Amino acid sequence: MACDCTCTCCQNAGPRAVIGQPAPDFLMKTTADLQELSSTASLADYRGKWLVLFFYPLDFTFVCPTEITGMSDAYDEFAKLNADILGVSTDSVYSHRAWINTPREQNGIAGVRYPIASDITKEVSRAYGVLIEKEGIALRGLFIIDPDGVLQYAVVNNLNVGRSVEETLRVLAALQTGERCPVNWKPGQKTL
């Protein structure tokens, strides 16, 4: 849906995430190098692999660590499907590092197996249509991008509802079949 208003936000928005089109590019600092915090991630870094790109509102909150650790605990299952994961919020990499260094039993995400990116400029959240402008935080948006950089799947939840790791894996596997998959399809079942 195209916006026809004339506000500065919309006129300077840049590319937007659209299913079946190239995913908006990005360049963000990440926690891949937890000591120096000098690593960055771009869409090109994931070329040739599937990418599960997900946004969450804030570090040190309540629902967010359940999603982040849930995705991390299933990391091997994503890897078997030639997929990588990148978590994103509008917090700084310094906040991310502090949260990663906090034990899980203290509401931290210690041991997370994929990088967390900082969209401190809010440009990436805006491009993927998940930014709550007035609050400067992202909704719970999850995007699956194919190895050619094309956006294949998008789902956005409100702040208080976590996403399903199992459903993300199911959709990823379904997309990889290249076939028509009926309701509740699971890997190993017949396609249409």
Write the layout of secondary structure elements.
Blueprint: H1 8-11, E1 27-30, E2 40-42, E3 50-55, H2 64-73, H3 75-80, E4 83-89, H4 93-100, E5 116-118, H5 123-127, E6 131-132, E7 137-138, E8 140-145, E9 151-157, H6 165-177
Parallel strand pairs: 3-4, 4-5
Antiparallel strand pairs: 1-2, 1-5, 3-8, 6-7, 8-9
Structure description:
- The chain has 192 residues and is an alpha+beta fold.
- The chain has a single domain (17-35, 47-162), classed as Glutaredoxin (3-Layer(aba) Sandwich), CATH 3.40.30.
- It has helices spanning 8-11, 64-73, 75-80, 93-100, 123-127, 165-177; strands spanning 27-30, 40-42, 50-55, 83-89, 116-118, 131-132, 137-138, 140-145, 151-157.
General form: globular
Low-confidence stretches: 1-12
Q: Strand portion, in percent?
A: 15-25%
CATH architecture: 3-Layer(aba) Sandwich
The side-by-side strand order for the widest beta sheet comes to 2-1-5-4-3-8-9
End-to-end CA span: 30 Å
Structural class: alpha+beta
Strand segment tally:
9
Count of structural domains:
1
What do we call the CATH topology? Glutaredoxin
User: Share of helix among residues?
Assistant: 10-25%
Report Rg. Answer: 17 Å
Per CATH, the class reads: Alpha Beta
Largest sheet: 7 strands, mixed
Determine the CATH superfamily. Glutaredoxin
- Summarize the helix and strand pattern as letters: HEEEHHEHEHEEEEH
What count of helical segments does DSSP give?
6
